Amino acid sequence: xxxxxxxxxxxxxxxxxxxxxxxxxxxxxxxxxxxxxxxxxxxxxxxxxxxxxxxxxxxxxxxxxxxxxxxxxxxxxxxxxxxxxxxxxxxxxxxxxxxxxxxxxxxxxxxxxxxxxxxxxxxxxxxxxxxxxxxxxxxxxxxxxxxxxxxxxxxxxxxxxxxxxxxxxxxxxxxxxxxxxxxxxxxxxxxxxxxxxxxxxxxxxxxxxxxxxxxxxxxxxxxxxxxxxxxxxxxxxxxxxxxxxxxxxxxxxxxxxxxxxxxxxxxxxxxxxxxxxxxxxxxxxxxxxxxxxxxxxxxxxxxxxxxxxxxxxxxxxxxxxxxxxxxxxxxxxxxxxxxxxxxxxxxxxxxxxxxxxxxxxxxxxxxxxxxxxxxxxxxxxxxxxxxxxxxxxxxxxxxxxxxxxxxxxxxxxxxxxxxxxxxxxxxxxxxxxxxxxxxxxxxxxxxxxxxxxxxxxxxxxxxxxxxxxxxxxxxxxxxxxxxxxxxxxxxxxxxxxxxxxxxxxxxxxxxxxxxxxxxxxxxxxxxxxxxxxxxxxxxxxxxxxxxxxxxxxxxxx
Length: 557
What we know:
The chain has an 8-stranded antiparallel beta sheet, with no helix packed on it. A 6-stranded antiparallel beta sheet has the order 1-2-6-5-4-3, with no helix packed on it. Strands 35, 36, 37, 38, 39 and 40 form a 6-stranded antiparallel beta sheet that branches. Helices cover 0% and strands 49% of the residues. It folds into 3 domains: 44-310, Tachylectin-2, Chain A (5 Propeller); 339-467, Trefoil (Trefoil (Acidic Fibroblast Growth Factor, subunit A)), CATH 2.80.10; 489-556, Immunoglobulin-like, CATH 2.60.40. It has strands at residues 5-17, 20-35, 45-54, 57-65, 81-87, 92-101, 108-110, 115-120, 123-132, 143-150, 158-159, 181-185, 188-195, 198-204, 216-217, 225-232, 235-242, 247-253, 261-267, 279-283, 286-293, 305-310, 339-345, 351-355, 358-362, 372-377, 383-388, 394-396, 406-408, 414-420, 424-430, 435-439, 450-454, 463-467, 489-490, 497-501, 506-518, 524-534, 541-546, 551-556. It is mainly β.
């Protein structure tokens, strides 16, 4: 599928947030966008893209192929500048244009090859490979790695050092100093690079523009070029181009220092393109694989285009073979509003119900309050509590694969991410491990439970949230006094003392009892049994605590 372009009225507005920049789009000016499809754009030929997720936006840093049509006399790369694209929904991509070029580096004279950008110390640092104007050893091509710096990916960019970071004069460099890639490992910052079967890594200083060690061999046997490092579920993953024409392969290790175990090919040789260059990243709950091919009109080895497809792991953490598609699904990265919802599974259109402490799909029934869920924000963005209205129990999935998803009297937070703008959300049991809610056996049968499984992207893992009005509860009655801070409120009917601990955000009762927490409108916020009511995710204001025989009023701060 080709790219469909359109004009969208928008203006990029930068908002300063705690010394960093947030990106938002405001209706005002005309910018060219590309709509979701593979390749991402046909407005220019693009290659060697790197990804950076920052403030819930995805920035793509891409090279620019300028070679002409396929022929015998133009078998070389012509690349003079780099573009930056940005998206918030994996559907609309804004191209800032050619924001960085070889001319930015006065010591360079040609070849805007692959680069990688990272954010640190309030700045963006873009590492790129270019031909050095004066330094070239015998047998090498004279490539060097420079660093550009900017306050925002759109620029303006400037040379951060005034000279190259890596050249042919750097101890233990390689003959082709290209394809830099940055990886953070705790406080350590590493840069990987190399080509023609020789790869290196070096530690950088915290200022991002000086070497902190001597380059060392990466010790990957089938490495050719295009290094990329990422971490997942206790393992380090080193992916790279192997052979020429290239496939994308990967190796795994329990430590950044190895030992490395080769795992094989994840992206096959590309049609009509000899190179393979990848970026692997997580954005809004999905793992993605970005690569280039020759699938734009007129494309070939020296006129490539960037594509994005999904990346999946199996239960053992092995990367599954990449499937090339027409493009990934659009997502909505807005946070979900608090309130009442009815949840249905996308593949079956059956409702999620709390059935005797187990979450399962049942025939949708708007009169069934056990299919009504109350969503509240958690302690951090994209984390929520999901409480069943009828039972007062919380959606609390196990982090163990194949365990059924159960509900609990105690509140527990879950990560919720938009799986698809049309198909709904992922309910993560363990976000870092890619474990989430999954209807067992992809079944459409009534009564089939949810289990915890690895993210496969299938529709039985996608849950749609439909807004629902919460039923009204009888207004609380009884003789009450307010509870403010640590001072208690004594209920005249039960002598039950209610204290609010502001530092812990906990309402404490004098005795163990069955309780209900209601808001000022009488709507049930939470139910449970015990002496403590956790209110970490509850907004400040007045609430009522109803026990078996009476009600007390409490001010939550």
